Amino acid sequence: MNDTQPDTKHKIIEAANNLFYRYGMEGTSIRKIASEAGVNIAAINYHFKSKEHLFIDLFTHNYLWSRNKILKIQKKYPSNTRKFCLEMFKFFRENGPSLVTCFKFLLDDNISSEECLERCKIMPEGPPGHEILREVIKSELKMDLTEKHLGFATKCLSGMIMHKALMLHSKLIKTHINQSGILCQKEMEEGLIFHIEATLNYLKKLNEH
What we know:
The chain is mostly helical. The chain folds into two domains: 49 residues, Homeodomain-like (Arc Repressor Mutant, subunit A), CATH 1.10.10.60; 146 residues. Helix 1 crosses helix 2 and helix 5 runs antiparallel to helix 11. The chain is globular and about 65 Å long. It starts with 7 loop residues before the first helix and ends with a helix.
C-alpha cells in the first residue's frame, strides 16, 4: 500500500489495514496487530492509545492515500472521463483492503461519533477521489453545467465505481470469478462504460435545453 520503507507507525497501519479488512475491528485484537506488524503492544499504545484511535487514523490514512493515487490518474486523463473512471475502478479493484476498511469504518456503530469527529482529520462528502472525478467531467464536457447536475453525475459514477469495486472484494463474487474466469470483471467494466456514456450523454442533453 505504501511506496516507501515503512517505519514502526506505518508497520502498524499496514498490519491493521490487512486485519481490519479480513476480520473487522471487533474481530481484531491489539495483540494480533502487534504480531502481524512485528512490534510490541507498547508501540501500538504509544502511537495510537487505543484500537478505536488506530481505526480512525487508518481511515484517514487510507482515504488520503487513495485520493493521492487518484490525483495521479487525473494527470494521465485530465479530460477523459471514460479512461479516468476505468483506471479509478482498476485502482480500487487492486487495493481492496484500503477501500473496504474505509467503508467498514464509516459503517461501524461501535466508534463514538464524538471521539471520531474530534480525532478524524477528514469528514468526506463522498468516496476517495469523487471531487477529482467531478473536475475530469467538467474538463471533458466544457459546458456551463449547474452544480446540481455536475454533482449528480459525479455521485452516479463514483457510486457505481465503488459498488462494482466492493463487489469484487466479496468472497461470494470472488468465488464466482474463480469459477467463470475473467467474465464477471469484464461484465462489470462493460457495465461501467455504459453508465459513463449514459451519464455524459444526459449532461449533454441537459445543456441543449
